[in-house]
From TrEMBL:
Membrane-crossing segments per the record: 6-27, 293-315, 321-342, 354-373
Domain of life of the native organism: Bacteria
Family: Belongs to the glycosyltransferase 2 family.
Gene3D superfamilies noted in UniProt: Spore Coat Polysaccharide Biosynthesis Protein SpsA, Chain A
GO molecular function: glycosyltransferase activity
Annotated ranges, domain Glycosyltransferase 2-like: 50-163
Annotated protein name in UniProt: Glycosyltransferase family 2 protein
Amino acid sequence: MSVIFWLSLFIVCYSYVGYGLLLYFVIRVKRLLHGHSQHGDSSFIPSVTFLVAAYNEEDFIAEKIKNSLAMDYPADKIRFIFVTDGSSDRTNEIIAQYPQVTLLYHPQRKGKMAAVNRAMEQVHTPFVVLSDANTLLNPSAVSLLMQHFADPATGVVAGEKKVMPTTGGAEAEGEGMYWKYESLLKKWDAELYSVMGAAGELIALRTALYEHPEEDTILDDFMISFRINMKGYKVMYEPAAYAMETSSASLGEEYKRKVRISAGGFQSMGRLLPLLNPFRYPKITWQYISHRVLRWTLAPLSLLLAIISNTLLVIGQAGNIYVVTCIAQVCFYGAALVGYLLAKRQKKVKYFYIPFYFVFMNVAVYIGCIRYFRKRQSAVWERAQRSVAVQ
């Protein structure tokens, strides 16, 4: 029982903290041996297509188009495509008001992946930038992403996701804190070799490397970037190119989003099984397992095993150390419960929302796993309700 406890504790600590510390140590050694890696070439300005998939975004789509057209990129080298399969509101009507934008519409709603696959058939430029319809980009985003492709070994460039200040509650604070940590890990992942999965809010890729993922794919950005990874290309990270969006409008909306991501994680792991073989993918496997696989599999399970085994060890009077660790766990989950109760009242208390959001994410993994294996998670997107940004 003590082995189960300490192993579970190690897996949780390694997954969320240890990997980051070890990764930082490894890149420090790499810097000493090889120096800092060179930045992209700002003189590299290729032709690019800016592609956005939208579904019933009438309240925001005009702002998205204006933001997209304001990109600081030569007008003769950028083309804009918006695909809106299944949209039943005024989204298509609004897009049609902008002659600079090519509108692709199909009345049947099959999901984002099917829409992107269809739109990619209309992309004839060597590079394409994918961006979510509910995000706003900084004007230099496309230029910053493109400069990394001057390196022929780069297949994908991931931008930064920023959560804007909103009127939301603890879900806004939790999501913002989570993405700050994730952004740091992405920076270090890229410096070592490659980012472990690009965020769909802002991602650029070589058009020729795009493989049409299965239409039932839940995490399109994850699958697109890793399949290019598997072809021997790197996924780079450009934090200065960022996509801004607000947090989920409520705990319920954030919960649905997390469950969907978790279900998609299990689907993706099943389709990316070769990445678990370090002999076939020696440059990727350690990062992939440490940053992604453990968080969706052993880490959530280890949280449950740690509290159960710890409780049994205390009951069996195995030693004072287990009393201390059990009290620590009870206090942590107690803080998470307080954080949940405060979140229900839309109150933000830093020392409670961090443990709350941590537990919240891991509970979503369990539910997402169940939904995936019961085949109850649809790939057809649902428009997420977002908080109102602070003016």
